[in-house]
């Protein structure tokens, strides 16, 4: 059981020091899967160890992959070149990457796989991915359009082209891409619809696939061809998590401090790294911020925007409503706890009223995190400037950044803990 709440005591001074974000969740879960599909031993270093990556590793172990963990940031993965049917449903908590990636990878298993998650995951849509698998002739079914999903795979496909709408989640596209290299023929994967959340995540996927020996080519702006090469075991270095970095970048500008992350913003290949440029403009953030290509950074930017000189409207964030929680709602509710009207919704846009005079005040704000790590981590930033910001269920940060509270503490942040 985690703690009930944590109140942040504003440090009243610039945050200065060295603080490294953990390994990238997105890259760790891609690498774990690809190493698990390969034959041979892969050493993944710089990896994230958190709820999301533990769920992925446990699921792979349940499918016959041997995974050793010699230290806090390394996985040594021994794959057989084939995943075996697990004896029980795969329980993946609220890990979107693990759930989506394994739903598609299950098509490569000879036998039945049930992919399931917690109550939150059971509300996150997966029907577009299940429909795409069915169009390849794979026996896959969901009763609710969300997990659980039952897949009876054979490793063989009946078509060589699949269409997928990535509007709700780019993870569907990544899932199909990674699965396709393990199939029995070249597959063309075509995007349907206009929007895709963060195309950068697709680039992350194809880069990881190539590192594990796959042949994947972008044949048009909306089509990828994947050859049936399978994967080769390899040693793979995982970069730090760019979404986790956004909290440290924001803490730096909010407090006027200097935090050395050990990695320059330009060195990240993940989409959220582009948030750095925006954060660096604080307290003169743009009037409109398009969050579509840096979605997981939006909670960070929205809380930062509360202290901006002028109001900020966030657009392109409709699919934040189907993340760990409805993040547009959670942000407007949390901001309004700090000051009535500070955050409002207009359709799927979030408008942050902004008031630099909030800094130095004291409020009574109990922030409902809805068990969402990013809501907890972003509202902690408000607590650096305002007294009385209390984060409910603070240990939900374990999803992607288990050491978050200790990392802030190492920079001089203090808390008032209360189990009640
Ligand atoms: O592919 C990935 O690693 C991710 C893609 C994004 O999700 P969607 O594609 O569901 O928008 C992002 O929000 C998530 O944290 C990680
Ligand atoms: C949306 C997120 O996670 P996922 O979809 O991987 O559960 C996130 O980490 O912000």
Task: For the structure shown, list the relevant keywords.
binds phosphoenolpyruvate, 12 helices, 2 domains, globular, 420 residues, UDP-n-acetylglucosamine1-carboxyvinyl-transferase, Chain, alpha/beta, binds shikimate-3-phosphate, 22 strands, RNA3'P_cycl/enolpyr_Trfase_a/b
Description of the molecule:
Catalyzes the transfer of the enolpyruvyl moiety of phosphoenolpyruvate (PEP) to the 5-hydroxyl of shikimate-3-phosphate (S3P) to produce enolpyruvyl shikimate-3-phosphate and inorganic phosphate. With 420 residues, this protein is α/β, with parallel strands linked by helices. It has two domains: 5-22 and 240-418, UDP-n-acetylglucosamine1-carboxyvinyl-transferase, Chain, CATH 3.65.10.10; 25-237, Alpha-beta prism (UDP-n-acetylglucosamine1-carboxyvinyl-transferase, Chain). 29% of the residues lie in helices and 24% in strands. It has twelve helices and 22 strands. The strands form six sheets. Strands 20-21-1-22 form a four-stranded mixed sheet. A four-stranded mixed sheet has the order 4-5-3-14, with helices on one face. α4 (127-135) runs parallel beside α5 (171-180), α5 (171-180) packs parallel to α6 (200-211) and α9 (298-305) packs parallel to α11 (373-382). The longest helix has 14 residues, at 242-255. The structure holds shikimate-3-phosphate and phosphoenolpyruvate. Shikimate-3-phosphate (S3P) is lined by residues 26, 96-97, 169-171, 174, 197-198, 201, 295-296, 319. Residues 94-97, 296, 323-324, 374, 400 line the site of phosphoenolpyruvate (PEP).
